[in-house]
């Protein structure tokens, strides 16, 4: 898990910690207190909070992508680029602009690869523009969309959710606004999605019992 506080104070440093706002359980998940309302339209909502600069998020991505592609029909998977401060604004803007342009599915993993495998600093405008061009995106169009009302609204929503979900580390995955797990609980990125399966099943049973 990458701690936001340490990243604000220094450089990119990853270390393990229990999820903030989550009541630690003698298990592999926590409880968010208070629970957050869901927007899944009646489906079980699975939300990942991430940051493009986070190496743990980069390692989780292939596992999450594979899981999401085969997710049950009663599950909706959402990604939220954490935005606790403007320190992560450029990366968050990149995510939501690519999403608005219909390119995030094609380029999401490539962003991680560029940053973590190729050493590309996408926070630098000229470097980012070259990377966008290389990947078939017009930098001028990108800049226009980045300033759009739609993207700015999504950035504001990301700020709000980062606060309301009490996110102070990434990656974190929340199920139905109640359960949370991460690589600290799971003891490694490869073990996270099996825990999410368990939490989805728990949420499903709770939904049936509530009817």
UniProtKB/TrEMBL annotation:
Q: Which PROSITE patterns match?
A: THIOREDOXIN_1 (PS00194), THIOREDOXIN_2 (PS51352)
Q: Which cysteines are joined by disulfide bonds?
A: 54-57
Question: What main location does UniProt list?
Answer: periplasm
Q: Which residues form the signal peptide?
A: 1-24
Q: Which UniProt keywords apply?
A: Disulfide bond, Periplasm, Redox-active center, Signal
List the CDD domains: DsbA_DsbA
Q: Which InterPro entries match?
A: DSBA-like_thioredoxin_dom, DsbA/DsbL, Thiol_disulfide_DsbA, Thioredoxin-like_sf, Thioredoxin_CS, Thioredoxin_domain
Limits of the Thioredoxin domain: 13-201
The UniProt family comment states: Belongs to the thioredoxin family. DsbA subfamily.
Q: Where in the cell is it found?
A: Periplasm
What superkingdom heads the lineage?
Bacteria
Q: Under the GO molecular function aspect, what terms does this record hold? A: disulfide oxidoreductase activity
Name the UniProt record assigns to this protein: Thiol:disulfide interchange protein
Source organism: Usitatibacter rugosus
- Name a GO CC annotation attached to this entry: periplasmic space
């Amino acid at each position: 898990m990458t701690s936001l506080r340490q990243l604000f104070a220094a450089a990119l440093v990853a270390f393990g910690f229990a999820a903030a706002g989550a009541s630690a359980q003698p298990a592999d998940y926590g409880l968010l207190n208070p629970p957050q309302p869901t927007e899944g339209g009646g489906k079980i909502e699975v939300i990942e909070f991430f940051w493009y600069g986070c190496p743990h998020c980069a390692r989780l991505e292939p596992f999450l992508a594979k899981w999401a592609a085969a997710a049950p029909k009663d599950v909706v998977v959402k990604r939220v680029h954490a935005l606790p401060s403007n320190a992560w604004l450029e990366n968050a803007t990149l995510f939501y602009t690519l999403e608005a342009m219909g390119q995030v599915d094609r380029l999401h993993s490539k962003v991680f690869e560029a940053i973590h495998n190729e050493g590309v600093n996408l926070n630098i405008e000229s470097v980012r523009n070259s990377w966008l061009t290389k990947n078939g995106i017009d930098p001028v169009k990108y800049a226009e969309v980045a300033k759009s009302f739609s993207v700015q609204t999504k950035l504001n929503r990301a700020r709000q959710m980062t606060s309301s979900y009490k996110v102070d580390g990434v990656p974190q995955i929340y199920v139905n606004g109640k359960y949370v797990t991460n690589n600290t609980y799971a003891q490694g990125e490869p073990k996270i999605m099996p825990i999410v399966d368990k939490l989805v099943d728990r949420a499903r049973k709770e939904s049936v019992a509530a009817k």
